[in-house]
Amino acid sequence: MTTSEQDALRVLEELLPADIVVADPDVIASYARDQSRLTDFCLPLAVVMPRTTDEVSRSLKVLHELGIPTVARGAGSGLSGAANASPGCVVLSLHRMNEILEIDAEDRLAVVQPGVITASLRAAASAVGLLYPPDPGSVEMCTVGGNVSTNAGGMCCIKYGVTGDFVIGLEVVLADGRVMRTGRRTVKGVAGYDLTRLFVGSEGTLGVITEITVRLVPGPPAAQTLVASFAGLSDAGAAVAGVIRAGLTPSLMEILDRTTVQAVDEMSHMGLGRGVAALLLVQSDDRDATDLLTLIEDICQQCGALDVARSSDPTEAALLLEARRLALPALERLGDWLLDDVAVPRSRIVDLIGAIEDISHQFGIVIGVFGHAGDGNLHPTVIFDDADPVSRAAALAAFDAITQKALDLGGTITGEHGTGRLKRAWLVRELDPTSHAVQTAIKAALDPHNLLNPAVAW
Amino acid sequence: MTTSEQDALRVLEELLPADIVVADPDVIASYARDQSRLTDFCLPLAVVMPRTTDEVSRSLKVLHELGIPTVARGAGSGLSGAANASPGCVVLSLHRMNEILEIDAEDRLAVVQPGVITASLRAAASAVGLLYPPDPGSVEMCTVGGNVSTNAGGMCCIKYGVTGDFVIGLEVVLADGRVMRTGRRTVKGVAGYDLTRLFVGSEGTLGVITEITVRLVPGPPAAQTLVASFAGLSDAGAAVAGVIRAGLTPSLMEILDRTTVQAVDEMSHMGLGRGVAALLLVQSDDRDATDLLTLIEDICQQCGALDVARSSDPTEAALLLEARRLALPALERLGDWLLDDVAVPRSRIVDLIGAIEDISHQFGIVIGVFGHAGDGNLHPTVIFDDADPVSRAAALAAFDAITQKALDLGGTITGEHGTGRLKRAWLVRELDPTSHAVQTAIKAALDPHNLLNPAVAW
Description:
By secondary structure, the first copy, chain A, is α+β, with helices and mostly antiparallel strands. Helices cover 36% and strands 20% of the residues of chain A. In chain A, the strands form five sheets. A seven-stranded antiparallel beta sheet of chain A has the order 15-12-14-13-19-20-17, with helices on both faces. A five-stranded antiparallel beta sheet of chain A has the order 5-6-10-8-9.
């Protein structure tokens, strides 16, 4: 820590309540980074842990006056490095602001603080017969504030959409400590620019979100589940295309490639079979789910499925979905991993998976592919040995090749994880120069001194 | 026209293709305003009618250099004065850019120019078995570009959402003529700030939209229809609340109050009955619509419905919906009208309608209420005599009282029509000062010389 940083820390401790400023090296070490791999991070100067909007506002005012950069943080479960500490920064952790302030069953909405765990909100909604659909993989540990800041997805998006589709209002503290509200409690409203959507997915670069109003939907019946295995990737791709073409909308449609299926089988001994080139997992929570899954089963059979299993029992369904849940843990056993998050138009999924197989051969590196087939959003997972510079270089090169391929196929560098540190440099390859200039102009308009998550801001 | 305006017009005619600059007084008169009432407007300097993005870009470059304000315009069917010409402005009419560029059935999306009539896009989607849901009242004449610029709603929103929920990408020309793209063709994507949503609903104040990519949904079965009449407003309100509480989501749920029902009956002799205090119109296009409408019929009966009629026949359904379609034309026969567009949390609809009845008595003025009960978005229509200053003043006072009441009930000044000229001054009463300052900062960042729709910009 430099002398000026020590001075700043002293001022911070003087001006803010003593129990919200933490500079203990053991504590701050655990706030240095999120769950991403191969992204830059460092130790923050301190961690500020506010309990109220007023404390967030006071903290940002002080940090603004001191010119100290601030990185807001939820649970740190992100996969793009958007919550990684940057040089000389303070991490602002929202974990103490974890109250569900309101569940309004009549108007079907909830008001929560940013540190509420997503699964807790889902449980609270469920208790009154409603559903908060967003279900990122980290649903049991991630926070609603983090989900909003990254516009997190999950497995339900094919039917329900992403986090941002449920956010109708926010309370936000700006870089200089001013507090504002966006949006409203009504389901419709067009007064002024849509600032709610501007903050959704902005990765803490425009303000710190201190309260979130989300809409809830009627609680659906228990989902029914179908798992189909295929001997060829193109067969599974044809089944996905067939489902879309038939105008069917399941509530989940996930795909696992051969590498992932084998890794899962080696870990779990589920007996998925060596001849399986792709596994398709489908759920429906429609009122007529039985009919819907029968139509989807027919499509799978027509596309040459090796085997189709179905269940309407929740316990059995959980077993059928186990392969998807185990995808990353199973691949993790093969080595270090670097998880990608590209998305392509739905019709190009098979092209993308095929290209990833080629990239795997080209770089002599294992890549497991799983993800949200119904959204065209895949998570190719590059397996490498972090201790071996050659392997590490190959992993990064393969990762880049996959990301470029997604762009070439008319897709995006990130479907749901965000750019963060991991893909910040890629942004200029997706956005045209004018669009990028507008992004920069908006950042400058809201945070003229570039103090909010400067290492991530685009 | 002042001398400097004449000079500017000459330069414009010199620098732009001759056939896209129109200064003929008869023509420009028809581009002076939209369909709103009691909003300011004037004759524009000229109307520019570009045919391509390049012509829009060249036009804005020239106008930018000349410092001439520009008001972009679709069909001019708006109800808030957002397309009204302001002093010394040029109206940029997008009506010649009316091509449907692409309907991609496999990826379920469409790419259109801004001047495409909304009904044409719906027909083109329908031809390949898909649905473009947005259905504003003016669907047969309004343009997709205008819908995007106002984030238009309609009757389908209770199930499908508003225009912005379907827009996934835009091409936009900025104030200085630079062309940019926002969004993408994938269903998910989080690279950079959500500029698409920033332009949606921005009423031409941030840029001119020259291309729109929308997502389409599977074409639903033909809708089934139910109409229920009630002797008391609170009975109808209880039915609406009952439908929401039961977790049922029809594709349409509209309400008409006593004044509107009587006006429709006097015009159409539909025999709606003098004892009717409220009419509820419901549709479902779910696969199990019959079951859904049976549940809703039961709820209506339990809430004391006088009469319930149902039909699955499209022709009969259209007749049942006729009362809603005739609401504004029927009220129009009673005098001049001023249409409001407030929205409240769904649970407060009956409170709002009750308050409007009180306001009607207080100001001694007829107010018919109809609108989207399922969204809490109502269109109270104040009837007055424009030739009588006393009546006009009463109408404006009643209009203000209704708008204030919506805010008091936790609602918004505009659910789907936008602020435009009509409610520009109200914006500061809905937004807090910091939120308003951020709106202004964004406008300044994108259009520093305030040339795009300056009379509307907030």
